[in-house]
Design goal:
The protein is of the alpha+beta class and 238 residues long. It is built from four helices and 15 strands. The protein has one domain. Strand 1 and strand 2 form a beta hairpin. The protein is flat, with a radius of gyration of 26 Å.
């Protein structure tokens, strides 16, 4: 009797799972199965991409092919997406929200060295308007604000860093504020890379009206003579 009940429970459990899975698959317009029998590349009845996707892009006009994987939510990329070469080397780690890039994006060479790091801001398509700052022509001071229609899913926003792939040092820094490239300064480079910029003796040093607190603390801690020695010995080559 116990064996009969046990077998009956197993049978109905398997039947329930089969019916549940069949009902779930019936909700899909199309899908694919991996070698591990995982369901991927789902397109629902509304024609929207859902769940985990693995996309293979072949070589085009001498441009190398690649493969990327991540999550779709109601037809839009969402969360972390990774891109790989056809040999399996990691090429990029991107973050998405509302279908557009959002947050930190990292890009690598074919041998795994970080070559660029970007920051983006993604607009919510349900709120297509945004308030953006208007800057003065000669500085980064905000003089007014303007309400605009967000025509793109995402725009550059934050610090972009470019790396020397051999040494790993930052060689260039750009700063954006919701799509606007801010005026670059050596001080911005130093703060963004947590390193000091190289000193060009052929150019006059820029005048800094106000200094961040961490710079004031640094100058208080070290004497001018010691700072000059550190600048001469610097090796960041920014």
């Amino acid at each position: 009797m116990k064996i009969f009940l046990s077998n009956s429970i197993k049978f109905f459990s398997i039947l329930f799972i089969f019916i549940y899975c069949s009902d779930s698959i019936a909700q899909y317009k199309s899908f694919s199965l991996t070698q591990d029998r995982d369901t991927v590349n789902i397109i629902d009845k509304k024609g929207l991409k859902q769940g985990k996707w693995i996309v293979t892009v072949p070589e085009i006009r001498s441009e190398p092919g690649y493969e990327e994987e991540g999550i779709y939510k109601n037809g839009k990329k969402d969360g972390i997406w990774r891109r790989y070469s056809t040999q399996g080397d990691l090429l990029a780690i991107e973050n998405y929200r509302f279908g557009g890039k959002d947050g930190v994006q990292q890009y690598y060479t074919f041998v795994g060295q970080l070559q660029k790091e970007e920051e983006w801001h993604s607009y919510n398509p349900d709120a297509p308007y945004d308030t953006i700052p208007i800057y003065g022509t000669d500085n980064n001071q905000i003089i007014s604000y303007k309400i605009v229609k967000a025509q793109q899913y995402s725009v550059p926003n934050g610090t972009w860093k470019y790396y020397d792939t051999e040494s790993g040092n930052v060689i260039k820094v750009e700063k954006y504020d919701r799509g606007s490239l801010l005026k670059d300064t050596d001080q911005d480079k130093a703060l963004a890379s947590n390193d000091k910029p190289a000193v060009d003796s052929t150019k006059p040093k820029p005048k800094i009206k106000t200094k961040p607190q961490e710079v004031l603390d640094y100058e208080k801690k070290y004497s001018k003579k010691k700072r000059d020695h550190l600048e001469r010995e610097g090796s960041t080559n920014l």
